[in-house]
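Pinned message: reference record for Olfactory receptor
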Amino acid sequence: MIMENTTTMSGFFLMGFSDIRELQILHALLFLAVYLLTLVGNLIIIIITTVDQHLQAPMYYFLKHLSFLDLSFISVTVPQSIDNSLMDDGYISHSQCILQVFFFTSLSWSEMAILTVMSYDRYAAICSPLHYEVTMNPSMCQWAVIAVWLSGSICGILYTTTTFSITFCKAKIIHQFFCDIPQLLKLSCSNDYLGVIGVVAFIFVMAFSCFTSIIFSYIHIFSTVLRIPSAEGRSKAFSTCLPHLFVVSFYVSTGAFAFLKPTSDSQTAVDLLISIFYTVIPPTLNPIVYSLRNEAMKEAFRKLLLDVQFTRKKTFLSFC
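Predicted structure (tokens):
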């Protein structure tokens, strides 16, 4: 019945993870737990980097925007997937799919751009410390963030416009839990997806330029750090660089592998697992990674907890 109706229906059908009702509920609960954990972790970073006066350096300013990107990024796909599993309905409307592709593409590129900006910030702080305040002044940081969001929006518009200009004539079944672009292209019945290939090539060149910039930044960073005479100085420098390097490596490797591998005509556990690794895991891990090795972040978090406890105690005493 699904195969008969999906060719003519206006929207698309997301296959999800399973047709078994118990597994659908389990998937919804697991995704809900991960989603709430991600929201809490990223909101904590946004709050403490906003209110704590000791976390007003450019590094934390960019980290705040990365957390906002992560929070938005996971909100594009996971809530829809949870709803589909709970309702036992994989249908997604044409307009919802368009919005999902737009925000997914925009936020994916914006995340790559902000990671590039953060690597340049670390390069300027470690390799040119005397000029750091001039190079990374507040105006420069604000323009960098504006460029990140603007470039993401442009990529999203280009990608979405070309993707949904193609004609879908095959059964509109997407073997994913969200509107995955490679899966959408497989639904095309002609070569009218050449415009999408052109946009993909453009974005790939830009992403490769960002990745190359990050690599060169870290080559200079590590060569500078290794020349620091004190072990304490080297440890402090590495503590601000290694979390960012881990995030970049994980994000780029999983995303590249997912989009360069051939798309399958049927749903496989490997495809779903890979999609989770580049859509769900990075936003969840980033708050943990950036907090574990950063003493300033941990101290700010402890102070936030103490302030919350003090406020609750004061409110309780006032009520009594």
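Pinned by admin. Summary line: The chain has one domain: 2-319.
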